[in-house]
Write a structure and sequence with these properties.
Chain B: InterPro entries: Redoxin, Thioredoxin-like_sf, Thioredoxin_domain, Thioredoxin_ResA/DsbE_sf. The structure holds two protein chains of two kinds. Chain A is mostly helical. Chain A contains two helices and no strands. Chain B has one domain: Glutaredoxin (3-Layer(aba) Sandwich). Classes of the chains: A mainly alpha, B alpha/beta.
Amino acid sequence: MNHKLTITLLTALLLTSGCTAVKPWERGNLASDVMSWQGDALKASLDNHVYFSKEGSSGGGQAAGGGCGCN
Amino acid sequence: MRVLAALFLALIMNNVSALEVGDKVPDFRLPLLTQQGQAGLSSFKGKVVYVDFWASWCGPCRKSLPALNTLRKELKGKGFEVVAINLDEDVKDARAFLKEFPVAYPTLYDGTGKTPELFGVRGMPTSYLIDRQGKLQAVHQGFKPSDITGIRAQVMSLLAK
């Protein structure tokens, strides 16, 4: 039997024992405010607006963009 | 080798056996949130029951609980009951939420996750409409205020049966 494959599978098995699916009802902590990337949605959107207008020529927050400055 | 592969598959696949429409809903018993005692599905035998899974951190639940409270107030006399099952990790959060959004229908608490597992809850909130015979008639995922019209119509048709 292919020993390498067995060892790979066994290792994978060991690793998967560390996987847990977070159930929909276990998302209380994830839904908490402190878990969001931006604390204040309004401030974030204002910041983004300024950022986009300043960095428009390079595509704003995205990699796409032709550099026409018309973003 | 095959056993290993099967084990591996079983571990990575998280298969949930969910209730399906037409199934007989199994009974459950849970402690009440706001008072002493327990209640379960069998406590509301012969009624059209709307089982609503919710949590204090769930955004749409701020809309659904008051809306369901109004609907239940209207149709209680005809044999309709709402049973809300809270799934918060900390029961204190649930009680604080109910102080802010008080409801007249029974609220139960399940901190173990057994009941949502039994029902196969896939999102918050999820609700299950059960007819007078104890059979599952509809599953409702999520909630927006306009949903209540459809829910009301479903409940009315089940009450008429």
